[in-house]
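Researcher: Good morning. I'm working through a list of sequences from a screen, and I'd like to move beyond sequence-only analysis. For each chain I'm collecting a predicted structure so we can compare shapes side by side. This is the next one on the list. No need for commentary yet; just the structure.
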Amino acid sequence: MVKLSLLFSDIEAGAGTPTDDFIEEELFCNTIKKLIKDSKAQPTDLILNGDTFDFLKAPYGHIYPRHVTQKVSIAKLDAIITAHPKFFSTFANFLKASKTNRIVFIVGNHDYDIIYPKVQRKLRSILTKGLDNPKKRVVFSGFEFTDGLLHVEHGSQLDAFFRVNPKTFVHPGTKWLTEPFLLLPWGVNALYDVVIHIKERYPLMERLYPKEATLSKISWKFKKELVLEMVLYFMKSFFITQFSERHDPLRRFRFADLWLYLKPFFAMSFHLNFLTEARKKLKKNNYQVISVGHNHTSSIYKVHGKTILNTGNWRDEYFYSSEVDAFLPKLKSYGYVLHEKNKILSCELREVGSKQNAIFAQDLTEEALASRRLI
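Model: Good morning. Structure tokens for this chain:
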């Protein structure tokens, strides 16, 4: 039996605040609507490969609590649903279009929260209203999903910055916080204590790539906020905070972690390098295709006759072109895989043009960096 798997990653639908980077919701929904026609020809899985939601940068009220309990995650999900109703209705329509259509959610580093049972139940209830067998129609596969020769995982588990232990990831609670909470990687502390506040003031700046080009085009004021404040925060966390708050498991910070986080700043290199681990995994297993996201780079290439499919991203981003001295909107992309149980029939990386305008380097003023670039 032929099956179609549609692979999307790094959508990052947020809470509608300045930190929400899912700008082209209309473009995404129209793309899914067109794919519904294809889904009627064979059983189809819409595989949402991590960072579908941006719980990470969604506020809880007006704060960003480091200890993410189930209650916090549900409140953030409510805010995301309110901000992007068309997003959710499009998924519901995909399921209604055919009884053999499924949606598969994989955990990414921006939506760790979907491992909570109440979050899963709420998503199922919204997406499968009026449908039979909701647990079969909406699948929560954890950190990875395998279907025959196709293996899908976000990529954060292959990345030392974001890798977590799935078995111990939900901390049972402590004497001072009795509710279970997510044992988030240390880097999330840095996000909530420093980076998120810069992101709130200058939402656009974090979406300009590569970072080396961005830093070369902005003033020292912004460089100081991005680099110096982070380095000082690392040092404070390693030498002071982890001892003064040693009761908190989220504050623990090994020497190996210190160098891991500081190295990119000293090298001025901010690329996520985890595809070496993906190649090892592909070589070691029987998969013919391994699909990842995470680093927001779209690519497809062969490794010893097998395929690594990097599905890119759908959040709003721009990449610098020296030819025009401007940051151009990146193409959106997704994977399109036709397969049988023991055979990959075709594997494609499909691209969709962004509707956003270019951002010229000469226009990178403080006012421009503070915008969300809404169409």
